[in-house]
Automatic annotation (TrEMBL):
Gene Ontology MF terms: aldehyde dehydrogenase (NAD+) activity
Name of the protein: Aldehyde dehydrogenase domain-containing protein
Top-rank lineage group of the source organism: Eukaryota
Keyword set includes Nucleotide-binding: no
PANTHER family: ALPHA-AMINOADIPIC SEMIALDEHYDE DEHYDROGENASE
Record bears the keyword ATP-binding: no
Family of the protein in this entry: Belongs to the aldehyde dehydrogenase family.
Residues in Aldehyde dehydrogenase domain copies: 10-53
Length: 53
């Protein structure tokens, strides 16, 4: 998806826009800390957020 997508529908249009939230904190469990951080940080970085682990 692009930064701003328009999904046409019957009688309406849906606009999807990703906005950065700023600082995002990622809290991980002790058993898979790097895997959970990787999943959450990838999404946060694509949206343009800063991360705190």
């Amino acid at each position: 998806m692009n930064y701003l997508d328009c999904v046409p529908g019957k009688g309406h249009a849906l606009l999807e826009q990703w906005n950065p939230l700023g600082l995002v904190g990622v809290i991980t469990a002790f058993n898979f800390p790097v895997a959970v951080y990787g999943w959450n940080s990838a999404i946060a970085m694509v949206c343009g957020n800063c991360l705190l682990w």
